[in-house]
Known about the structure:
By secondary structure, the protein is mainly α. It has one domain. Helix content is 69%, strand content 2%. The protein starts with a helix and ends in a 10-residue tail after the last helix. Mean pLDDT is 85; it is low at 384-394. This is Cell division protein FtsW, lipid II flippase.
Amino acid sequence: MLGKKLRLHELDKMIIILLGILCGVSILFIFSTQSSWHFGAQNFALKQGINYIIGFILLYFFRFLDLNQLRTLSWPFYFFTALSLVILAIAPESIAPNILGAKRWFSIPLLGSIQPSEFFRIAVILIVAKLIFEHKEKHLSQSIQGDFLLIGKILIVILIPSLLVYQQPDTGMVMLYLFAILAMLGMVKLHKAVVTIGILIPMLLVSTIVFLFLVKPELIYDDIIPKLKPHQQERIIGWLDPSGNSNESFQSSRSILAVGTGGLTGKGLEGGNVYVPEKHTDFIFASIAEEGGFLTGSVVILLFFLLIVRIIDIGIKSNDAYGTYICAGLALSLTIQIVQNIGMVEGMLPVKGIALPFLTYGGSSLFSNMILLGIVMSVRNTYGHQFFGSSKVS
């Protein structure tokens, strides 16, 4: 009876089950990590459990918003989150502290740290999906001018807030915005010339950098890398030449050691003996691979795969293009975030301050992702109710 009143049957069972397992994995390995290393009196595992309770409440709330309501709220949510980025940039350190050279968080009494760039990702997905949806309704015929007009609209609303996030600095988050936008644009039949230009420019840029690195590496080290911010220089140099830059590659080297010594089945809970900075946050996968081994790490990756497949499936079945765009943006954004985090943990990609979704300790990343999954469930229930008012969903 209570379930019917709360409409729990409308929650997507597969997503809830996957989130439940990821919640358990997150709390378990955060607890194990804090038991192995001294973090003072802070109980990160307990705090993560509280974060998950709040996250499920947010998911439940946003699941009740239908797509029309989301379209209506997209602009207010965009302006609110964009304004928060502006305030963060000019706020004094008393409320926006500089942590390890980055100014990304508001420090709010009782609530803790809030990272506005995480919530702006929700705004990016909602507002770009809205712009694409409305543009395609007004411009039924395909044209180069129409496609460039759409891209121009997106740049106008995204460029300045993204630059603010980049200046924090948070290059990884800007990258997630970009891939979310690319995924949504990929769902639209853009003119072949626009697609060609969009593919050739980044390919040419990457090819040029790789060519210069192979032929004239001194040009990369002496002329290009010094133009980056200090923390970016350290991470790239440490990644390109870890043996010759032990200080810059310390975190990555320790992470690789932790993963490598985990073996097939791991060292067991609380058995991790390799010190890795931020092991309970962005490097939580190092703890999973060390203590749970290759098998546990593979299971975690499988859970992520199933979650992303479910999001894509919901987007494909949606009878509303707006919902399809949202699911596409979230699916690719999550995929890139997972690949980047695990890639940096295993030394295959440069280190970035980017969380592993649903596993890394912290509230902002978890809350934003739970809100997005609530929105995905809204997409699912929208197409589930389209036939004769039936509440049957698949």
